[in-house]
Write a structure and sequence with these properties.
10% strand; mainly alpha; globular; 52% helix; two-stranded antiparallel sheet; single chain; 17 helices; two-stranded antiparallel ribbon
Length: 500
């Protein structure tokens, strides 16, 4: 029924024989979008298409560009087609657009976008009075194994077919290979083949990598400063000096099985800590505060330029007006007049049941965040409980005596706790990604733009707490509530709090 409805909408289906598949059961259903479908939905989706080549003279090239010629790509790769003036496509005014070849007028990304728009809204029956529609639901219930757009041509060799533009082969040769890591990215070609979203992502990734290079250079210089001044560090000298650090007796780090120890036993760790904690570290912190501000401002500038060059200035507004999610359309039973556009639009009136469901969902968010904090506290308790055990084992086991200088109870506890914390973070991150998607689906956002914003906010909230809760503990809580000899502070009245 789903495939019959696709045919009724104008798509062409090509079904392969099951005998040609590997297991005799799974086979491909290839979808072709004819010209009439493409121009119809290009108008529905308000897709901008070229009407005239840009005749505005380009800016004068920078004379310093010759310095960067080793990083440049050929012009035909960087700009695979001329710059055009564009306008939203209109089916009734096709003569205004530069249609030289109907098969090449729409790029692969635009064709895939149109077909996906149809697939996500095509119905295939009703169940308990509710419409059943969309390829996503059929994928979830196992009717189809997968759904994806096919690539054009092969990426490892040039096609013999003159109709194939070999864009995938060009991208592999000039971009998607490790020997080309130092070259600039062909963003226009990426955008033409994969679409604007993928193009914007790689533009951001490339810009972020370039900016990180400057931070890495300054950080490396600060590290070298710590390396060259390691032997001049006065605090390390006093700790390592047998007459100073060797004469200072330190209190036991745990109550029962830990012994007194001398300060000079931490000589090597104090020397190594100077590599990353010295005077230059303060300068690096100030530099990173300035760097992150410049990164954000320069990226806004870069993003605005790409929005202008790729005709994405009004993209968000168009997404909000036109790209209603099919899940939202299925739930809507009423229409109301938009006070801004004065046009009728679909509207879903929220009931008490909807508000109750949303309240439970938001309570669920706080529950999962609380679970992250609880897991961090569990790791802290693990560190407190296991430290004494490691101290007792290393003190009483003769086979470990030769390596006690390298493998201290503090180091053993930190390594095992860090490994445990890493496993917890990975497991929770795996769960939260699915929970965030599930909660966002239950909210039924109106547009894809709203859906992505809500999902991004939840993922940021989850991952921020998940990844950085341990850092906040070390920075603001560890060693702050220790007490003093004879009156130590205990967690849960049992474990002595960690010292720094």
């Amino acid at each position: 029924m789903f495939e019959n409805n696709l045919v009724k909408k104008g798509l062409e289906l090509e079904t392969e024989d099951k005998k040609e598949s590997e297991n005799g059961k799974t086979y491909f259903v290839k979808i072709h979008a004819p010209w009439e479908i493409l121009i119809t939905y290009a108008e529905v989706l308000n897709i901008k298409m070229p009407i005239k080549e840009n005749d505005i003279p380009c800016m004068v090239e920078n004379p310093l560009d010759c310095i960067f010629w080793p990083f440049r790509l050929p012009e035909i790769v960087m700009h695979p087609e001329p710059d055009y003036f564009t306008a939203p496509f209109s089916k009734e005014r096709q003569e205004l657009y530069l249609i030289d070849d109907e098969n090449m007028f729409f790029s692969p990304s635009v064709r895939n976008r149109i077909v996906f728009y149809i697939l996500t809204r095509c119905p295939y029956g009703t169940e308990e009075g509710k419409k059943k529609f969309g390829i996503k639901r059929l994928l979830n219930n196992g009717t189809y194994s997968s759904a994806y757009p096919l690539h054009d041509c092969q990426y490892w060799k040039k096609s013999n077919d003159p109709k194939c533009e070999n864009e995938r082969y060009t991208l592999h040769r000039e971009w998607a290979r490790f020997p080309r890591f130092y070259k600039e990215q062909p963003l226009d070609l990426i955008r033409k083949y994969y679409g604007e979203k993928i193009g914007i992502y790689f533009a951001w990734l490339g810009f972020y990598t370039e900016m990180l290079f400057f931070a890495a250079v300054v950080g490396f210089i600060c590290f070298l400063y710590g390396l060259f001044t390691m032997n001049e560090n006065m605090s390390s000298k006093e700790i390592c000096h047998p007459g100073i650090g060797g004469e200072i007796i330190m209190c036991p780090l745990c109550d029962r099985k830990c012994d007194y120890w001398r300060l000079n036993s931490t000589c090597e760790s104090s020397q190594y800590s100077h590599l990353f904690d010295n005077v230059a570290t303060l300068f690096f912190a100030i530099f990173m505060g300035i760097w992150v501000t410049l990164f954000l401002e320069f990226w806004k500038r870069r993003q605005a330029r790409l929005e202008y060059e790729w005709d994405l200035v009004d993209f968000e507004e168009e997404q909000q007006q036109l790209q209603l999610r099919p899940e939202y359309e299925a739930k809507c039973t009423q229409k109301r007049k938009n006070p801004v556009t004065q046009e009728l639009e679909l509207f879903k009136r929220k009931s008490i049941h909807d508000y109750g469901k949303l309240s439970l969902l938001y309570c669920g968010i706080f529950f999962w965040i609380s679970l992250i904090i609880a897991s961090m506290i569990a790791v802290i308790v693990y560190r407190l409980a296991v430290y004494a055990a490691f101290a007792s084992i290393m003190e009483n086991t003769e086979t470990l005596q030769p390596i006690r200088g390298l493998l201290t109870p503090q180091l053993a506890t930190s390594v095992t706790a860090s490994f445990l914390n890493f496993i917890i973070i990975m497991i929770l991150n795996f769960l939260y990604e699915r929970i965030a998607i599930w909660i966002t689906d239950m909210e039924i956002p109106r547009t894809h733009y709203e859906y992505e914003n809500r999902l991004t906010m939840k993922m940021f909230l989850f991952q921020f707490v998940n990844y950085y809760s341990s850092c906040f503990y070390v920075a603001f809580f560890k060693g702050k509530f220790v007490g003093y000899p004879g009156s130590y502070t205990y967690m849960f009245s049992r474990w002595r709090n960690e010292e720094v």
